[in-house]
Amino acid sequence: MKTMKYNKFIKIWLVTGCVLLFFQIFIGGITRITGSGLSITKWEIVTGTLPPLSEAEWDKEYALYQNTPQYEKINNGLSMSKFKFIYFWEYFHRLWARLMGIIFLIPLIFFVIKKWVDKWLLIRLAYVFFCALLAAVFGWIMVASGLINRPWVNAYKLSLHLGIALLTYSVLLWTTFGVFEKSDWKVSNYKLRSLVRMLLIGIVIQIFFGAIVSGMRASLFYPSWPDMNGSFIPAIIFNPSAWNLDNIINYDQNTFMPALIHVLHRNWGYIVFGFGIFTSIRILQYPLRSHYYKWSIILIILLCLQVLLGILTLINSIGTIPVFYGVMHQAVAIFILSVILYLSFIFRYKQKPI
Fold it and tell me: Three-state DSSP class for 78?
């Protein structure tokens, strides 16, 4: 239970943290789509803070990259200038994470000394730090999975890494809501609370499916909409012999998993979109403050935008995944998650119904 009111410095710090985490995930999306994640083959927390500063150091980094499956199977003969481009995004992604650690930790020490934080906030920040550490560890596990046999990182490990990163963001955002909370935020309505919770579960599942699609680069297999290369469900899905563990694990050696994850992501997306619109309309039908109506309308706009971006990403994934559409598709997914988390926060109460 909170025991104090928090000053503006705590609030600014937490909002800054949420923004930094959002951009860390955003930069991670660029890193993933541009295939930059395997350009740095070592995980050096301290010495890796500085990029190569001389041509000799660049040659050394490039030589390490030349020993990776990605270089041998996909980027053989890659020019130094293009290597520097993909190196930049992976380096920037790691540097941003280091900067976040400093921006989080140093002010927190100051706030503790000043006694501006209570036990409630410290416990929740401990959850955030634990999730962030877990995301970093899984980040390296993910990268390591692409340095042995596959020319890309393992799609399932990538999905876990992104999932943990979004969990970190969600925990921090929920904590921030708690710090800003006012007494008149409380809304008790069992029906709306249930709808919003189901929508939250639905969007989490959809984001996970989307991460696997991205990790498998599955949009390259079916760059069409509303059909999938001429059919609503690819024929391989109906082949009983394709449903085996080997096809699921070695997804990059057959078309079964790219087809299956496409079917799941597209059709679950239709369900989440429809249910999200329905939930927003239901909120608008109740006698609530106009403040809550605004977020319902924003959710409707974001859901429509997300569908459009998903379609644009698909139909432009011919030979290569479009970076702009792909990254914006992920960014809007985070915005949708944020709005649903806020609605979950305000409808979590169980007091007398309104």
Answer: coil
Confidence of residue 354 (pLDDT cuts 50, 70, 90): very low
Determine the Cα angle at 72 with ends 25 and 75, to 5°.
Answer: 55
10 Å CB burial of residue 5 (0-12, 13-18, 19+) is exposed
Question: Using an 8 Å Cβ cutoff, are 269 and 206 in contact?
Answer: yes
Contact criterion met (CB below 8 Å) for 344 and 176: no
Find out whether 41 and 217 touch, Cβ atoms under 8 Å. Answer: no
**Sign of torsion over alpha carbons 338, 339, 344, 345:** positive
Q: pLDDT digit string (tens) for 310-347?
A: 999 999 999 889 999 999 999 999 999 999 999 999 88
Nearest to 6 by CA among 95, 118, 113, 163: 118
Residue whose tokens read 């999905």 = 159
d(CA 135, CA 90): 15
pTM to 2 decimals?
A: 0.91
Q: What is the pLDDT of residue 351?
A: 53
pLDDT above 50: residue 353: no
Residue with tokens 């053989």: 76
Q: C-alpha distances in angstroms, 252 versus 108, 179, 303, 342?
A: 44, 45, 31, 38
